[in-house]
């Protein structure tokens, strides 16, 4: 797989992506500028979800309309004027979503002081929208192509992150894919800037899909590799101190949530024990449902440290 050194400069990973300049235009005027700068015929060729500008105008949620309009596009395919408008719209949307500062979250050691989980002081749980989380890096459950979800209406983290980050991230992912010469492998990781996400970076990992009725040793190893690959890459980047994971391989990928939770917590625990917390000093598990949060709490409360 392609090492960081082979694509770091190509995607300008270490260059900041600054705030857009103040723009007096309304959101609707900015959206008009975006539509004017799309490649000819893009809407008709993108998805049956939207086939005309009129359909986009009829949508009540401008951010949904923007997401659909940009589906599958990278920044290199869009005019400079449209990119300027996109940058402002996504910056405004990020402000509307609000902010949760990762380092301020309560640690597991504070939530459950009796938990025997060895890395309790360096781990937190949080329920919320990843587009609100201020962290150095968040994990994206990516497809092997790294180009984002192909279903415009699919409520997955891949869709949410690509939509809020903006088309610049897809450019980076395409560059990485082209340099690598093939799709990414399950259990590996790549890193890009976060662009209009509140996180500085996004770590993209392809998590395994459970094909059988039970989780095999190979399935277990593949999912564990997603966590170690992301943490190894974050450590190599050098300026990442806070990392947030979603519940990889659960949902449509078929892993039982309890099993995936055990793998996630044990793998992160072992990694932090091996590498210390001087650089990466906080790992956040981003959970969405009450039942899933209860499962994490149950595992942590009954944890027996080796």
For the structure shown, list the relevant keywords.
single chain; 306 residues; alpha/beta; 6-stranded mixed β-sheet; 11 helices; 8 strands; 41% helix; globular
Plain-language structure description:
- It is a single chain.
- This protein is 41% helix and 11% strand.
- By secondary structure, the protein is α/β, with parallel strands linked by helices.
- The protein has a six-stranded mixed beta sheet with strand order 2-8-7-4-6-5, with helices on both faces.
- Helix 1 runs antiparallel to helix 5 (80-97), helix 9 (217-237) packs across helix 10 (257-275) and helix 10 (257-275) crosses helix 11.
- The longest helix has 21 residues, at 217-237.
Strand order of the largest sheet: 2-8-7-4-6-5
Mean pLDDT: 93
Q: Tell me the number of helical segments per DSSP (H or I, 4 or more residues long).
A: 11
Structural class: alpha/beta
Spans where pLDDT lies below 50 across 5 or more residues:
none
Instruction: Summarize the biggest pleated sheet.
Output: 6 strands, mixed
What level of helicity do the residues show? 40-55%
Distance between the termini: 33 Å
- Topology as H/E string? HHHHHEHEEEHHEEHEHEH
The total beta strand count reads: 8
Q: Judging from the principal axes of the Cα atoms, what is the shape?
A: globular
